[in-house]
Specification:
The chain is built from twelve helices and 13 strands. By secondary structure, the protein is α/β, with parallel strands linked by helices.
Length: 394
């Protein structure tokens, strides 16, 4: 009888202290998906301000993880690799972070839980230090105690809080009542996310972790396998920290897509070919080459505009253009239609004369149908007696 009692006491002591199994800090190579562009554009916006990790460092995490060929270490090694990937996948944004581990014995300074990192301003470097401080696993699984202690840790955490639990879920005491109490204490500020790091024989623990996530009403439960890839981890990070936003509208006043010197906001001709002289509206020869009343001859003073058109055609060998002739409203419609055609053809002839292939040019008249200014004043009518170039290669 005394021998049996001695054996029982020895076994209990072994369970309490746990045969500590050391963990490696050699992490897998990992290239995360970059979420910064989505955040910067406003397509994704921050919804979580703080995160606190509760990591299972009990003796069951010393067992070899066999659910994936990607890992050759213990379940604790898997947890640390996942946390490393998680740390690398978080986009740049203001956060606070913290980490607590749970088990028994020497790995937790002979306590049942251990605060590896108190709540503080998050940085990838400081959180990596917290991850590497998870040196070994030992003892039982007091997740309920860890949840209770973490509830005190996060009192200083600002804003919305993500409580992230990594474990195989094999518990001696149900942690659900403690999770429900935490939710009652923190309300909508707190969401619980769980990651099951277990083997097939730990399947019952997966249901425990699912219950914890359900208790918060806004978290979810996932598995190590689901978040080990770059995409899987990226999706996890997005779901924990971010939500869909309204993309920020580009500031057109600072953009000039066709490089003509006129901002996109003011550019009425946004596909001006390279090298074209444009007016204040960004249009090529718009209100530029004008004609006298009832005339179709090209004035000598517009030679630079014709020469510019020739140079543009040379600079853009694939460019084809439609030369559009216009008139003011004086005269009959039929006469003005013919006059506008003569004006377009006169410009076409000048371009061909200076070396532009005729097959790259078409001439069209629009008569008085498309005024750009009032026909009630001499100045307005002068602007309406014009040609415009329209590119036809797009």
């Amino acid at each position: 009888m005394k021998r049996n009692l001695l054996f029982t006491a020895t076994l209990a002591g072994a369970l309490l202290s746990g045969c500590a199994t050391q963990s490696s800090n050699n992490f897998q190579a990992f290239q995360p998906e970059d979420l910064n562009a989505l955040v910067k554009s406003g397509k994704l916006v921050q919804k979580t301000n703080s995160f606190f990790v509760i990591n299972d460092s009990s003796s069951s995490m010393s067992r070899t993880y066999v659910n994936s060929a990607d890992y050759s270490g213990t379940k604790l090694d898997v947890e640390k690799n996942l946390l490393n990937k998680f740390n690398k996948s978080i986009p740049v944004m203001p956060l606070t972070s913290g980490l607590r581990s749970f088990g028994f014995g020497p790995c937790l300074s002979w306590g049942s839980t251990y605060l590896n990192q108190a709540v503080q301003d998050y940085s990838p470097a400081s959180f990596e230090t917290a991850i590497t401080s998870l040196q070994c696993s030992s003892g039982g699984t007091p997740l309920a105690t860890a949840l209770s202690d973490s509830g005190k840790d996060i009192t200083s955490a600002p804003g919305n809080i993500a409580l992230i639990v990594l474990s195989d879920g094999i518990e001696e005491v149900s942690p659900l009542p403690t999770a429900e109490a935490l939710k009652s204490q923190y309300g909508d500020k707190l969401c619980i996310y769980t990651v099951w790091v277990g083997n097939d024989q730990d399947a019952a623990g997966q249901a425990v972790l699912q219950e914890l996530a359900n208790a918060s009403g806004c978290g979810f439960s996932t598995t190590a396998e689901a978040i080990t890839s770059a995409k899987g981890m990226s999706d996890f990070v997005k779901n924990v920290f971010l939500k869909a936003g309204t993309p920020k509208a580009a500031d057109c006043s600072t953009q000039d897509d066709d490089k003509d010197g006129v901002s996109n906001c003011a550019d009425k001709c946004p596909d001006t070919p390279k090298g074209a002289i444009v007016d204040k509206d960004g249009c090529w020869a718009f209100r530029g080459l004008l004609f006298d009343f009832d005339k179709s001859d090209v004035k000598a003073k517009y030679g630079p505009l014709i020469q510019n058109a020739v140079e543009v055609m040379k600079m853009n060998p694939g460019l084809t253009i439609e030369i559009q002739g216009h008139t003011d409203s004086y005269g009959k419609d039929a006469y003005n239609q013919k006059l506008s055609e003569r004006r377009a053809n006169a410009v076409k002839a000048e371009l061909i004369k200076q070396g532009v292939e005729g097959k790259r040019l078409t001439a069209v008249g629009f008569g008085e149908s498309k005024p750009v200014d009032t026909n009630e004043t001499d100045e307005g009518r002068a602007y309406n007696r014009r040609v415009e170039y329209k590119r036809t290669d797009r």
